[in-house]
Structures are given as structure tokens and as C-alpha cells.
Design goal:
This protein has 499 residues and is of the alpha/beta class. It folds into two domains: 7-250 and 458-479, Aldehyde Dehydrogenase, Chain A, domain 1 (3-Layer(aba) Sandwich), CATH 3.40.605; 254-438, Aldehyde Dehydrogenase, Chain A, domain 2 (3-Layer(aba) Sandwich), CATH 3.40.309. The chain contains 15 helices and 19 strands. It has helices at residues 41-60, 63-79, 81-92, 96-116, 155-166, 180-192, 207-216, 229-242, 264-276, 293-308, 328-344, 379-382, 398-406, 421-430, 469-472; strands at 7-9, 12-14, 21-25, 32-37, 123-126, 132-140, 143-147, 170-174, 200-202, 220-226, 245-249, 254-258, 286-291, 347-350, 369-374, 389-394, 413-417, 435-438, 474-482. Strands 14-15-16-13-12-17-18 form a seven-stranded mixed beta sheet, sandwiched between helices. The radius of gyration is 24 Å and the shape is globular. The model has no long low-confidence stretch (mean pLDDT 96).
Length: 499
């Protein structure tokens, strides 16, 4: 019998009011992992009400104490890293070393944000008037709704939950329906660490019901969403109409630029890891390689050969290089783009089809795919595929390569391989993405720096770390303390001070 999991509302584990459930499967084997509530607006309302009631006490809890709870959470995650990583591989599909990295990201984020509990920097500035103190502090927003994706089911929630909590907000979290068991196990750690009831609430379910209800609820002050551009735009419109703050982290169409003076072996390593790590299911995954003429043939041949030799399989097996896609629809989308690429006239070098040999037939596997002779305007080069599909594009110069890189409706991550320091700095200046790598792939981030992108990748907020992440979850409050003992009229009286 499948193991049953529940919503976590006001410190209690309870089923959906409708009694409906969702089954979670292993995308590599089809194995049933468990069932979770298929929640609707009634469950969301109950969770929001709990968060609203908990807010006043939580916001008045000193930030250093809030931080101590988060530090304890991080310590528990670290102690359970192996078991959480194995569960992550079973429910999401990525290979175990990557899954362990996903969990480690949460440890790092918890520790980093625990440090912010004794900082939460505001502003202290001189006043224009004598005997007057001027400063600005951060206030929490209230109830925050968090909607997260399946591809980083521990790391991405940690990017949102830890900073939101340390700032004094209370939360309702709706995780992706493909990885709900990981969400339940994650929340159990917060409960064990002593987080008060109602401060963090978990509601599992489909976006059309639970997610929409969370966005629309009048007591939710902010929505933090990571996912597709299509859904993100709908949420942005809804939040604008409702007067809510919204933070969006959406898609990517990331490119690696390889110049003639690059280290070809290093560039090839970077391309393979960035294009096919996590089966290409990262918003920072490389889906375009932009190469200059002298290295075009060499890069195309090397990348295609390496991609064709990648071993597909269950991510728990040490022999596996590339795991499954998350579900049948995801694999079908990648195959659709393979057909689109062929129809557009691109040259298929390897892959381009489902992988169904032997045990692979039980899961959602797709062969690592490489196209050459792709032009910048092809759909293959413009649209997010979110799978193991790579397009090689030729550029005649650095300037043209950067123009091609910037010529998509996404701006998350980009990379350039070159041995010329002047060229590297020119690229750093002109590449219009939120993340830029020099002589490395496009994937990976560190919690002490902000994560996010430009153009269609988001709406300007940053998450993932660094002090800027606090801006999304706080309001600024400017405070003036006049200890002059007389009425001073700012702006009006300042000229009289000069004599």
C-alpha cells in the first residue's frame, strides 16, 4: 500500500477537505512513491488563515531567535543529506550526486540566512537638519504565498522559505505536484526544529486549484513563483489586478559562447555538463552553443560524440550519467522540438528520439540531442525546451556572438570561453543576462550572490542569496527622530541653517 502524506496547516498534518489525492511516481521506474492531498481553495484558505494568525507573534520574535531556528533546520538537513538526496533522486529523477548538491544548497542557504538574522541591514544616513536622526528599517510583508517547481525541489524552496522567514513573514507553500513528498519531508524538518505552528504551512495540489487559490486569496500579500513563463505571466497579471507584490523566476535560453582562442577541451566539458546535467531540466541549462568559425567543426564533433556516449538510467545507479525527464509530457515536448528542428533545416548530429531500450522503457528517458547548423531565428534557438536538447549556432565575431546571445526573450545565464582577458571583460560588460560565467558552464550558483535574470526570465526581483533577496520579502520603513526640542520643517527651513 502506498505511503500517505498530508498537508501541514497550523502545526497539524491533515488531509485535503475533499479527500482527493495525487499519486507521486518515480520518473525512472514508474514506481509509486506515495500519495498526497489534492488540495483546493478550502485547504488554501485554512492555511492562509493559520499563517495570518501566526504573523503577529512571529514578526515580533527577535530576528536572531528566528535565525536560530533556521540554523537548526540547516543542521538537521545536513545530518539527513544522504537520505534526502536519495529520496530526491527517486521522486525527481536527477542522478544522486546532483541530488545531494540540491540538498546541500538548502544547507548553505539556511546557514547564510541564519546569519542575516543578526544583520538584516537597513540604512543609516545623515539628516539635513540638526539634532535629527534618519534611518530606514525592514518590515515583513505578512502572509507570503510560495509556489515552487519540481526540478530543484529542495534548493529552490530554500531560496524562498529561509529569507522570507528570517524577515518575519509567515508562509503558505504550494510545491509542484510532481515532487510533493520531498516538500512534506522538508517541512517535517522545520517542525522538528521548533518552528511555531502556523508560521510555515504546506498545501499540496494542482496549480489550477491550489495554486490559483493561493494567488487570489486576499490575505496573501505576496506571491513568489518559480516556473514557466506562461504561468508566470498569468500570475503577474492577477497580482497586479489584486495589488499584490509578485516575484517571478521564469525560463531561460542560455548560451555558451566559444571563441577561437578558447581551451576546447575545457569548453567541451562545460557544454556537456551544462546541457545534459539534470537532463537539461534546469532554468540555467545550456541550450545554445555559439561558436566562431575556427572552432565550429571541432566543437560540434566533440560535443556530439560525448553526448552520444552518455549513459541513461536510474539516477541511483553509479553508472548513470543522465536520468529521466520528470514525466511523459516533458519527454513529448523535447521530441516535438526535435521534429521542429528537423523541419527547420537544422542538422541532427545525435539523439533526437526517445530512449526505450530495456529498463529505460519503464521511465521517461530521452536521448541527449545535438543539432548543428542552427540559425538564431529558428524556434530551436529561441524557445525554451527544458530537456536534453542542444543547438550549435555559428557566429563570425565576438560582437555577433553577443548579439545572438542577447537576441532571445530570456536573460538568465550565459558563458564565454576565451583565453583573452580583454575579450572576457568586454563580454562581461555586454552580455545582458543576470548571471555571466567566464570559462565555465552556465549552471550553478552560490548563496552569497543573487540569482535571477533579465527580460522574460523574471520581473526584476532576485532570489537564491545575497542581501538583495531580502528586498523581495520586506517593506522599507523610513524613520526620523527629531531631538531638537522644536518644530523643524524639512526642505523649508534648510536655507536658514546656512549663514
Amino acid at each position: 500500500m502506498a505511503r500517505e502524506f498530508f498537508n501541514y496547516i497550523d502545526g497539524k498534518w491533515i488531509p485535503a477537505q475533499s479527500g482527493a489525492t495525487i499519486v507521486s511516481h518515480n520518473p525512472a521506474t514508474g514506481e509509486t512513491l506515495g500519495v498526497v492531498p489534492a488540495s483546493d481553495a478550502r485547504d488554501v484558505a485554512r492555511a492562509v488563515d493559520a499563517a495570518a494568525r501566526a504573523f503577529e507573534k512571529w514578526r515580533k520574535t527577535p530576528a536572531p531567535h528566528r535565525a536560530e531556528i533556521l540554523r537548526h533546520v540547516a543542521e538537521i538537513i545536513r545530518a539527513r543529506k544522504q537520505s534526502l538526496g536519495e529520496l530526491l533522486t527517486r521522486e525527481m529523477g536527477k542522478v544522486l550526486p546532483e541530488a545531494l548538491g540540491d540538498v546541500q544548497e538548502a544547507v548553505d542557504m539556511g546557514m547564510y540566512m541564519a546569519g542575516e538574522g543578526r544583520r538584516l541591514n537597513g540604512l543609516l544616513v545623515p539628516s539635513e537638519l540638526p539634532n535629527k536622526w534618519a534611518m530606514a528599517v525592514r518590515d515583513p510583508l505578512g502572509v507570503v504565498g510560495i509556489i515552487t517547481p519540481w526540478n530543484f525541489p529542495i534548493a529552490v524552496p530554500s531560496w524562498k522559505i529561509f529569507p522570507a522567514l528570517v524577515c518575519g513573514n509567515t508562509l503558505v507553500w504550494k510545491p509542484a505536484e510532481d515532487t510533493p513528498i520531498l516538500a512534506a519531508e522538508f517541512v517535517k524538518i522545520f517542525e522538528e526544529a521548533g518552528l511555531p505552528p502556523g508560521v510555515l504551512n504546506l498545501v499540496t495540489g494542482y496549480g489550477e486549484l491550489a495554486g490559483a487559490a493561493l494567488v487570489e486569496h486576499p490575505q496573501v500579500k505576496m506571491i513568489s513563483f518559480t516556473g514557466s513563463n506562461e504561468i508566470g505571466k498569468l500570475i503577474a497579471v492577477q497580482c497586479a489586478q489584486l495589488g499584490k507584490r509578485v516575484s517571478l523566476e521564469l525560463g531561460g535560453k542560455n548560451a555558451i559562447i566559444v571563441l577561437d582562442d578558447a581551451d576546447i577541451d575545457l569548453a567541451t566539458d562545460g557544454i556537456i555538463w551544462s546541457a545534459f546535467g539534470t537532463s537539461g531540466q534546469r532554468c540555467t541549462a545550456t541550450s545554445r552553443v555559439i561558436v566562431t568559425p575556427d572552432v565550429h567543426k571541432s566543437i560540434a564533433e566533440r560535443v556530439a560524440e560525448r553526448a552520444s556516449k552518455l549513459r541513461l538510467g536510474d539516477g541511483l545507479l553509479p553508472t548513470t550519467d543522465v536520468g529521466p525527464l520528470i514525466n511523459k509530457a516533458a519527454a513529448a515536448k523535447v521530441h516535438e522540438y526535435s521534429e521542429i528542428g528537423k523541419g527547420e533545416g537544422a542538422t541532427l548530429l545525435t539523439g533526437g528520439d526517445y530512449a526505450t531500450e530495456g529498463e529505460l522503457a519503464r521511465g521517461h528517458f530521452y536521448k541527449p540531442t545535438v543539432f548543428d547548423q542552427v540559425t538564431p531565428t529558428m524556434r530551436l534557438a529561441q524557445e525554451e525546451i527544458f530537456g536534453p536538447s542542444l543547438s550549435i549556432i555559428r557566429a563570425d565575431s565576438l560582437a555577433q556572438a553577443i548579439q545572438i546571445n542577447n537576441g532571445v526573450n530570456f536573460g538568465l545565464s550565459a558563458s564565454i570561453f576565451t583565453s583573452n582577458v580583454n575579450t572576457a571583460f568586454e563580454a562581461m560588460r555586454d552580455i545582458a543576462t543576470g548571471i555571466v560565467y567566464i570559462n565555465a558552464g552556465t549552471i550553478g550558483s552560490e548563496v552569497q550572490l543573487p540569482f535571477g535574470g533579465t527580460r522574460g526570465t523574471g520581473n526584476g526581483h532576485r532570489e537564491g542569496g545575497g542581501p538583495p533577496v531580502l528586498d523581495a520579502f520586506t517593506e522599507w520603513k523610513s524613520i526620523y527622530v527629531d531631538y531638537s526640542g522644536r518644530l523643524q520643517r524639512a526642505q523649508i527651513d534648510t536655507d536658514s541653517l546656512v549663514s
